[in-house]
Specification:
Strand order of the largest sheet: 2-1-3-4-5
Structural class: alpha/beta
Helix content: 40-55%
CATH class: Alpha Beta
Number of domains: 1
CATH superfamily: Response regulator
Radius of gyration: 13 Å
Shape: globular
CATH topology: Rossmann fold
Number of helices: 5
CATH architecture: 3-Layer(aba) Sandwich
Number of strands: 5
Order of helices and strands: EHEHEHEHEH
Distance between the termini: 13 Å
């Protein structure tokens, strides 16, 4: 079985590293990371990962804006996106649902919840 590739997009280096460590632990995933939404979109177009884990609240180019750009690009429209965020309010969750994301994981990230969500998507 080929390793699945996952792109982790988060402006916080600590969060990126924690998530990457969780994903690489079992050797099932190849992980790449981006420091923000714009970089995440560029890497997604270039490398075509199997899944994008996207922080929602990032300065400059938010997760929402990044997802809109991914959905508008023929090369990335089919890549599933899971939001990983500390936002815990109904309006944000509704907005996430409206744009057709593959899933939602709350911060602080719990490894078992993250892996369960990824397994549902992939």
């Amino acid at each position: 079985m080929d390793k699945k590739s996952i792109l982790v997009v988060d402006d916080d280096s600590f969060n990126r590293q924690i998530i990457a460590d969780m994903l690489m632990k079992g050797g099932l995933f190849t992980v790449m990371s981006a420091t923000g939404g714009k970089m995440g979109c560029e890497l997604a177009e270039r490398f075509q990962p199997d899944l994008v884990l996207m922080d929602w609240n990032m300065p400059g180019f938010s997760g929402y804006e990044a997802v809109e750009q991914l959905r508008a690009n023929d090369k990335t429209v089919g890549i599933p996106v899971v939001v990983v965020t500390g936002v815990d309010n109904t309006a944000a969750v509704e907005k996430i649902s409206e744009i057709g994301l593959a899933g939602y994981v709350s911060k602080p990230v719990v490894e078992s919840e993250l892996l369960a969500c990824i397994n549902r998507v992939l």
